[in-house]
Design brief:
The complex is a heterodimer of chains A (145) and B (212).
Chain A (H helix, E strand, L loop, with lengths): L7 H15 L8 H10 L7 H20 L4 H16 L7 H9 L8 H8 L9 H14 L3
Chain B lengths: L7 H9 L1 H18 L12 H14 L12 H22 L1 H5 L15 H8 L10 H10 L7 H13 L4 H8 L3 H32 L1
Helix pairs in contact in B: 2-3, 2-4, 3-4, 7-8, 9-10
The chains are: A mainly alpha (145), B mainly alpha (212).
Chain lengths: 145, 212
């Protein structure tokens, strides 16, 4: 018989109280509050989309490895996400919040592309030739358009 | 056959939910950290981002089949639908073999599951007799009240919940004699305050595991 989670007995009793303390989940649909909460946790909301793209690419690689093909749903999702990233504007980011996160190490898991672009002072839709080549290679590897 | 991938509004909505879903997943981790005796979840190999991304990917792979109550509530309904999936995955994570292998040593119990006298004595201090609504509230108070010591208005909200057992916004407002809007404002601040604490604890644990 498997072990039970050591804190199970507390979960039921405390969940209602914790919900009252931490507020309803739908509060996260408020963009400002959601961003503030994520930043407080060290999660940069402005890079979530590019991180999700990486997650989809990893999923695509796994499918490719296992079955030799990538489902249309994932190919379609990658296409949409890439176009969103290209059209998004990184200058919307609050520079102070971003610098604070960088200094505190809160952005240690961010994709390197973000830093590369920041270093080169390029916006997201102005990739340098080297970066664009890397992206094109990756797309070709994944069989995207 | 309708190709849902050609429907830009659905994609807009889905991608707009990336931050709220990640925030919700992070809240689950934080909640577990608060209610558990340890401050953070032992190693699970999953981050809040990973949990949210997995659910979104599964939803996409499943053809993004979803029926909202009405077009007006599409965002909210989809968020609740996906948040439920995130919650179930989180529960699975807690029950997973990997997590179970990480023993959470409960000082309140001996090996045979019996409560120990020392800990009962310890819990007796901040118990219900000290003005908290329940033993669970007393335990939460011990962890949370010191974190808001320098924020009297946040402490007031916490004390209202933990001492009177009130959970609804209006009830809290009545206890602290403020407007429900003020309660919402304070609770949002409280949530961000606790998120900062959770991040610091998490970062310090990571530093220990890296260098220790």
């Amino acid at each position: 018989m498997g072990k039970t989670h050591g804190n199970d007995h507390l979960h039921q009793h405390t969940s209602e109280i914790l919900d009252a303390i931490l507020g309803p989940n739908e509060d996260f649909l408020d963009e400002d509050h959601c961003q503030e909460f994520l930043l407080a946790l060290g999660i940069d909301p402005t890079t979530l989309l590019s991180e999700f793209k990486e997650h989809l690419e990893e999923t695509a690689r796994n499918h490719q490895f296992k079955s030799g093909g990538v489902p249309n749903s994932i190919v379609g999702a990658l296409r949409v996400v890439r176009s969103r990233i290209q059209s998004s504007n990184s200058s919307k980011m609050d520079p102070n919040a971003h610098i604070n996160l960088l200094l505190s190490g809160g952005l240690s898991h961010q994709p390197t592309g973000t830093f590369t672009r920041a270093f080169r002072r390029d916006s997201d839709d102005e990739l340098c030739a080297e970066d664009q080549e890397l992206l094109d290679d990756l797309e070709a590897e994944l069989g995207g358009d | 056959m309708v190709d849902s991938h050609n429907s830009p509004d659905k994609w807009d909505c889905l991608l707009r939910l990336l931050p709220p879903l990640t925030a919700f997943a992070a809240k689950l981790f934080m909640q577990e950290g608060i209610s558990a005796r340890d401050d953070i979840l032992p190693a699970t190999g999953k981050s809040p981002r990973g949990l949210a991304f997995d659910v979104l990917t599964k939803f996409i792979e499943g053809g993004m089949k979803f029926r909202p109550r009405s077009p007006e509530t599409y965002d909210k309904d989809l968020f609740n639908y996906l948040a439920t999936a995130v919650f179930h995955d989180f529960l699975d994570l807690l029950k997973s073999h990997q997590y179970q292998k990480t023993d959470v040593i409960d000082p309140a119990k001996r090996g045979d599951g019996q409560e120990t006298a020392v800990v009962l004595e310890e819990l007796g201090g901040p118990g219900a007799e000290d003005g908290f609504y329940s033993l669970e509230c007393a335990m939460l108070a011990r962890k949370l009240l010191p974190l808001v010591e320098d924020e009297p208005d946040l402490k007031e909200v916490l004390e209202a919940i933990l001492c009177f057992g009130v959970t609804k916004r209006e009830e809290i407002a009545e206890v602290i004699e403020k407007t429900p809007q003020e309660v919402t404002y304070r609770k949002n601040r409280l949530r961000v305050h606790l998120a900062s604490w959770h991040r610091k604890v998490h970062a310090s644990r990571k530093a220990v595991s890296t260098h220790g």
